[in-house]
Design brief:
By secondary structure, this protein is an alpha+beta fold. The protein is built from 5 helices and 6 strands; from the N terminus they run E-E-H-H-H-E-H-E-E-H-E. The model has no long low-confidence stretch (mean pLDDT about 85). Keywords: Lyase.
């Protein structure tokens, strides 16, 4: 067993059933109409237990989320721009929610400033089939932010990084 500390400082002990669930999903969810039921059959659990375990691990900070990770390049979105914005700290939460709700923003979050070198505190990733499309989408964000945006820029991806989630090695069986 492994012990983790949750955001509330309550220890959470990862049991073998949790570990089996993580091992079964670390390569992705089954691409079937009912992935929870498929996992439940594989692991001799009910679908409710699968979902309950995921929720519990999420509540304790062991996993952040279960989400699709599309391959933007295979979908034709070859231009990826992390738009970064300098907005007032007392407005960043509300503005971030509004930006994050835009249909073309794949993820949006707040980051600390590192003055005097880095003034930006709101980040929003957009994807496009061209650089112009990314810049048009950044223009929509700029219009939404209005006067609250004091400065911005777009950081374009220069390499494809492989995204992976939590990974466990299979435990060696005792001999």
């Amino acid at each position: 067993m492994s012990a983790f500390t949750s955001p509330s400082d309550q220890p959470y002990v990862l049991c073998e059933r949790d570990r089996a669930l993580i091992l079964a999903t670390q390569g992705g969810l089954p691409l079937v109409p009912e992935p929870w039921e498929d996992l439940a059959r594989q692991l001799d659990m009910s679908a409710d237990e699968v979902l309950t375990r995921f929720r519990r691990m999420q509540e304790h900070g062991i996993i952040r989320r279960v989400a699709a990770v599309p391959d933007h390049y295979r979908l034709g979105y070859r231009f990826n721009g992390m738009t970064v914005w300098d907005v007032a700290d007392d407005q960043v939460s509300d503005l971030g929610r509004a930006v994050g709700n835009l249909p073309f923003v794949s993820h949006c979050y707040r980051r600390p400033r590192h003055l005097p070198w880095w003034r930006y505190n709101l980040f929003a990733m957009v994807h496009g089939t061209s650089r112009d499309e990314v810049e048009q989408k950044a223009g929509h964000i700029e219009a939404l932010l209005g006067d609250a945006s004091r400065a911005s820029t777009i950081l374009y991806s220069s390499a494809i990084l492989k995204k992976t989630g939590l990974r466990f090695r299979k435990q060696k069986e005792a001999s």
